[in-house]
């Protein structure tokens, strides 16, 4: 899988007008993110062929599912998996029969299954449920079976439509580790529709931002998150996720040193092996900027950086994009300041500053392959 | 012995008629109900109204038109001529056709309701799992609609057994050929054979009671299973 997934759909659905076009890598998790009613689910249904706009294009890694000249593959001929918001299991079948419903039936020679039954049941922890009826499963169990059922159909693309939004907080947290394992273990591109930035942070590599039926931005997650001109960076809880490697561990104080491009963070955390990949997250409101290296301070993380660009959020606040390192060519972060500070310090694009980071969080489940049992 | 065959002949014929009619109706009504539940065409409610006509029309009206259609001058006569007969009226085949028309609404309605109640989702799920529309129908829609199919079959069977007017008009109550229980009772009463009339009438009351009771119980079980 090295190609792209290219989609473009234009049309109206009652009062709603969709004009969405984007390109996503045919690997990893791409989040389609936006407020409810922005058309994310509609786009996903179009990709699946459950909804048909005559003006549409859908090209998955070179296979045209919908295109010019009226090409339109019916849903059942598209090698996809679809996980709906509600598990929608077949109530007249057992869990095992549900899982096998879409599995290719001829397992003849030369037809090797990429995703094996045992692997799926182990990955999703549904092995003990196989002979039960979906009626007697909890919400979280049902959704895990639904994901397994989609995987067993041997898809080339997995579409997930807010698979966690119908579940309460606890069950969400119970399923997220399964999704993370899925992402890390199965080489399958996933388009993941959500309006929950927490899920984006934990799962996605790439993001497509939607508003009112249109795509406002798309790109690698870190790039979109740290762009002060985009709506994601302008929200009050804006934050940027970075991928780094463990450099060392200070046992005395329980601090993990995580190196990112252009800088190094000290994070209070349990010990991790040196060299392990770790995902950290910095909230824009937790960063303040100074022009001179601050003296004695309780703040552990003070990193040299350069101001790349800025955007005015409200009359009194500014969001600043900074690049770590003396030249600002390292990883990017967002800082949220008052306009008074910006002007009082005489800050400007291109200026060298010190970023004081009050809090850094480790994002759970990112980085190293997680343990094999839940 | 003779007196017994008097009574048993109509009973067996009635059961045979109801069984054949119900089987044929399920084959015809299921696709019709599927179309009525899922089609978006503007004239489907017109078709639904035609299907429901037997609910309100007097059996004599139905019987009258069926006589014309099945008789020697109608399409029924043309079909009958294929095997050298003159007419479908006053034959068992004619009775089956008449009973089917009269019972269609009782079979179509519950099946249509259960197809409509399941919504689009199970079929969408089936499509995303590579199931062709045919497989989705057989493997998903039909099993999910089974309570409706069962209700429709029971209602169709019971209503066919209870039908009198249409059967009398197009069957004529010929012993051994078209005399079913309801018409037999009529004949027994006309000829003052009270004992025979009593046995058949009482049997039908018991049958009707059993059908209604078991329908209610089945319904209850399915509702509980779904909850």
Q: Can you characterise this structure?
A:
With 374 residues, chain A is of the alpha+beta class. Chain A has helices spanning 40-48, 95-100, 117-124, 139-152, 169-185, 197-203, 221-225, 231-234, 339-344; strands at 4-13, 16-25, 29-33, 55-60, 63-67, 71-72, 80-83, 157-161, 190-194, 206-211, 214-220, 239-250, 255-260, 263-268, 277-283, 287-290, 301-314, 317-324, 332-338, 352-357, 361-362. Chain A has two domains: 4-225, Rossmann fold, CATH 3.40.50; 239-362, Beta Barrel (OB fold (Dihydrolipoamide Acetyltransferase, E2P)), CATH 2.40.50.100. In chain A, strands 7-8-9-3-10-11 form a six-stranded mixed β-sheet, sandwiched between helices. A five-stranded antiparallel β-sheet of chain A has the order 2-1-4-5-6, with helices on one face. In chain A, strands 14-13-12-15-21 form a five-stranded antiparallel β-sheet. In chain A, helix 3 runs antiparallel to helix 4 and helix 4 runs parallel beside helix 5. Chain A starts with a strand and ends in a 12-residue tail after the last strand. Chain B has a single domain, classed as MetI-like fold (Orthogonal Bundle), CATH 1.10.3720.10. Chain B has eleven helices and no strands. Chain B is globular. The termini of chain B are far apart. The chains are: A alpha+beta (374), B mainly alpha (227). At the A-B interface, strand 7 of A face helix 6 and helix 7 of B.
Strand content of chain B: under 5%
Domains of chain A, number: 2
Describe the sheet with the most strands of chain B.
Answer: none
Query: What is the count of DSSP helices of chain A, taking H or I runs of 4+ residues?
Result: 9
Low-confidence stretches of chain B are none
User: Kindly state the mean pLDDT of chain A as a whole number?
Assistant: 89
Number of domains of chain B: 1
Please give the number of β-strands of chain B: 0
Mean pLDDT of chain B equals: 90
